[in-house]
Each structure stands twice: as C-alpha cells, then as structure tokens.
Amino acid sequence: MFNTFYANGPTVAQQYCSRLQVIFRQQIQPWHPSSTLAHEAGAAVLRLAPEKFWQFSAALFQTRRSFFDVSVVNETRNKTYERLARVAGSVGVDKQKVLALLVIPETPNSQD
C-alpha cells in the first residue's frame, strides 16, 4: 500500500491534488510494541523537519523488518530509538535532535 501511494514523493496526492485531500493518520498498533516506537520517531521527524516525513517513512518502510517485534525483543527501547534516529539521519534529518526527542533518560529528572 505504501509503495502504491508513495514513489519519489506522494504521487497519488500530486496526480489528483485538485480532487483529493490526503490525510495521514498514524495508526499505532498496541499489539506490536515496536510500532509505538516507530510512530514516535515519525512524530519526531514531523516536528523537526515536516518536509522530510515522507522520505523518512519510505526509508523506514525499506528497513521495516529490522523493527519488527521479533527483531527488537532483545534490544532496549533507547537502542531501538537510536536505530530509528539513524533512519531519520539517512534522509537528512538531524539524528541527534530526533534522538533527543525520543530517548528515555537513564536517571530520573530531579525536577519531576
């Protein structure tokens, strides 16, 4: 489905822009815990570089198997975030800024 909609840009939206409005809603699948992390990374990209969202999504789709639950089961959440930030970096989004939005501190914040 993603490849039908997206190929070097949102082609369906470009072709039918006068008659079509595209609304993308992230559907987190709570039965797939790693889905939440991938969607959080997408939200971080949207916040930092919205113009890169589709490129990030395409890159994530290409590497999706490495983020399936079975692939991350023995990995810490922050390690998965690091790999997701690298995917964002591969399309020109500052991976350190993405990681800063995602990473969970290892020590509690004293102001909480």
UniProtKB/TrEMBL annotation:
SUPFAM superfamilies linked to this entry: Thioredoxin-like (SSF52833)
Name of this protein: Uncharacterized protein
UniProt organism field: Penicillium nalgiovense
Lineage: Eukaryota, Fungi, Dikarya, Ascomycota, Pezizomycotina
